[in-house]
Amino acid sequence: MFARIAAMIIGSGLIGIGVNGFLVPHHLLDGGIIGLALILHYYFDFQTGLWSALLSIPLILYAWVKDRGQFHGSIYGMIVTAIFLDLLAPYQFPLPIWISAILGGAICGIGVGLMLRYKTSTGGTDLIAYFIAKATPLSIGLIIAILDGIIVLIGFQTLGLWSVVFSSITILSAGLLANICYERPNNGSVPN
């Protein structure tokens, strides 16, 4: 239980640092629900954390029905991640865009992978990825990259080509690191 709580706090903190510190200064997108919340943030100045939590509610309800253990980890993970996203919003690191894309994605990927490894999540599309990976031979990193790519393409219309290019680098970096940190055992289960 202690390891799960620590993974949730550390993972959420890493996501908050990755998103605010590296993605927001260049209007880059993470994928999934946080990516949708970032689009709302860039255009309407909505709070990213609050909106990521609100947009995650249907997925959390699905987890309630399908996997109560994942539900508890996800609802708490969603709340903690939302708090870190909004709490760390003022902390930005103005690095060159390509460095920010790689570092932001890597840091977010480590956070997501760590959370998923201990049966918790942000409640966003990584929760969908968890259920798909549990039911198929697909790697969780690949699933996250595909879902995140869809969100980044949605952002193309509003953010433009450069944002899509560098956001794609971000999601590839995030997907790779999430998969490495998750390290799904052969039997499809994750540590408790």
TrEMBL record:
Residues that span the membrane, as ranges: 7-28, 48-65, 74-91, 97-116, 128-154, 160-182
Subcellular location: Cell membrane
UniProtKB keywords: Cell membrane, Membrane, Transmembrane, Transmembrane helix
InterPro entries, per database record: UPF0750_membrane, YitT
Annotated GO CC locations: plasma membrane
UniProt topology in membrane: Multi-pass membrane protein
Top-rank lineage group of the source organism: Bacteria
Any Pfam family: YitT_membrane
Name of the protein in its database record: YitT family protein
The organism of origin for this protein: Heyndrickxia sporothermodurans
